[in-house]
Design brief:
The chain is α+β, with helices and mostly antiparallel strands. The protein is built from four helices and ten strands. Strands 1, 2, 3, 4, 7, 9 and 10 form a seven-stranded antiparallel sheet that branches. It has a three-stranded antiparallel sheet with strand order 6-5-8, with no helix packed on it. The model has no long low-confidence stretch (mean pLDDT 92).
Length: 226
């Protein structure tokens, strides 16, 4: 299929895409969830003082607890599922499964979004997974993800983007992490993983961040047939 990403081949660098923010009100729903009209100033809503994140805490701040408490029948998840179906699935040349609950990130000023430089496959993830990084605020320079463009290359590049833009990339295989945020603004983003359904196998792995079973119906979801 012309223009599709072939999941049988390794990605050759991050792929940059746009979407219509009027069709997918991610920012509006997360703003409601966090009770913050300007997500880039979210650090002022809760507190200006945050400890430097560690592996144990980078998914358990007040931001994360608030996001993950959203009901799974909320409008946000309706938008998310629609985005997967209409935008993400159409990028690929075969049926995918996707991360049922996206991962939330909040990188406040003078802090990190993830605590460690890593490859996701170091933490129970399959090397066949593909990552989608979707900022909901400006994410540039020290407030975004820095990643290799090929495994082992060490050519760390910032995934610069803003709301309405996203990257498809290989976080499972490319080393990546954050620099300390010196922009004075908070970066809010979600990211999630997809995998060709043909590469999925039942397994006994669990997510290292919350012990979710890495199986369909738990960590992974299938697109519903329409």
């Amino acid at each position: 299929m012309v223009g599709k990403i072939n999941l049988e081949q390794p990605l050759s660098g991050p792929k940059f895409f746009n979407y219509n923010i009027e069709d997918y009100a991610f920012v509006e729903e997360i703003s409601k969830c966090l009770k913050c009209d300007n997500l880039s100033e979210a650090h002022k809503v809760y507190s200006s003082d945050f400890d430097i994140l560690t592996f144990e805490t980078d998914q358990s701040t007040i931001f994360h607890k608030t996001f993950y408490s959203m009901p799974k029948d909320s409008k946000f998840y309706t938008i998310y599922d629609s985005f997967i179906r209409n935008e993400i699935q159409n990028l690929f040349d075969e049926e995918i499964i996707y991360q049922r609950i996206p991962t939330f990130r909040a990188q406040v000023p003078n802090n990190l979004g993830v605590a460690e430089w890593h490859k996701d496959k170091q933490y129970n993830h399959s090397s066949r997974e593909v990552n989608i990084y979707l900022p909901l605020t400006d994410a540039y320079g020290t407030s975004t993800v820095w990643s290799e463009t090929q495994e082992g290359l060490g050519d760390y590049t910032p995934l610069n983007a803003t709301s309405g833009e996203y990257y498809v990339w290989s976080g499972a295989n490319w080393n990546h992490g954050n620099k300390k945020n010196k922009t004075g603004k908070t970066r809010i983003s979600i990211d999630f993983r997809i995998m060709p359904i043909s590469k999925y196998k039942d397994n006994h792995r669990t997510s290292t961040s919350n012990s979710t079973k890495m199986t369909i119906g738990h960590y992974w979801a299938k697109l519903n047939k329409e």
